[in-house]
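Changelog-linked ticket: magnesium ion example.
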Amino acid sequence: MPRDILLCDLDAFFASVEQCDRTELVGLPVIVGGSPEARGVVASCSYEARRFGVRSAMPVRRALRLCPEAVLLPVDMARYRRASEEVFALFRQYAEAVEEVSIDEAYLAVPPGKGVHIAQELRRRVREDLGLPLSVGVSANKLLAKIACELAKPDGLKELWPEDVPFVLWPLDVSVLPGVGQKTRKRLDEMGIRSVGDLAARREETLASALGSLGGTLWRYAHGLDDRELETAREEKSLGTETTFPRDVSDREEALAALVGLCEDVGWRLRRRMLLARTVTVKIRHGDYGTVTRSVTLPRPVNTDGAVWRAAKELFLRHAGHGPWRLVGVQVTNLVDTDWRQLSLLEDHGREIREEKLAAVLDDLKARYGKDVVRRARALGRSKVRGGRP
Ligand SMILES: [Mg+2]
């Protein structure tokens, strides 16, 4: 379906909100971050501070050495979240679909031919109504919209269409492409590939044999091709399962063995629905009916049994206290579509990829022979549980 894609990114977001709330800070170097005494890092900094070399994720102590006159403010996440919600509500007034990438960044799908006009309108309204600078990249796909936005910053608007690719994209360093982290960049450098144009000049097969499936993807990106869809929130909000033991369990290993089985079940259902989960919750009921639920939100969404299990196990070990336990349960929430995950994140996680392959084989067996035919040794070995879904 033809549509224009916008990538909207709020500039120096936390620092901009602070400058908006306190006009006396406008034009000053502002750093939002932890205290230097507590070895805090910079969460966000205004462009005035960036001129001194201050950057996000830098230790605050170092930032203040570079820019001693900077105004240092603590992180006020609740305030930034409110501002973000106001901005995103505005996005929804104009867009047919919105993919929330982070607190200050979103992809918008708008009718074809309307991208630039809507981008101008959004920039004006975010500035006038909410007092914040917004950069927007406009194109036909996510890749080019993202790169256009990088080129538009700060406080700018830029279009980048497929026909501009040879003039605009090819001179840039390969690291502008998603999926090119340090490792891949080094590998490409060894092949004599430095710019996106160098990459585009190679044969797709050459890249695929050197880099696997990433090679093919990068070749398409280098030609400005990207068919990733916008990932909007799904209907399904959670998946979970729990088990009540036939008799209270005091052995930690036995409780964990039951938890493995539950994590496999949840992982399988996630993959079958083409979903990934960001948040894993464990429910623990003690023999005296006291119930504890604890959650962890992961840096990346997951769908492998192993990833769900690692999170659940850690929560259990930290919060289960002493047995006897009557019930354990696992739930995943914050669900997103499977292909949400970006290549750059994938390539650094070989273990996860291997697990995904294993999970795919197991799923195939389960589909053919029934879900219970495949059980890992651990879940088989010790659990004497009565399964059941809430
Ligand atoms: Mg931003």
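Closing comment: Example verified and attached. Residues 339-349, 380-390 have pLDDT under 50 and may be disordered. The chain has three domains: 8-139, 166-222, 238-388.
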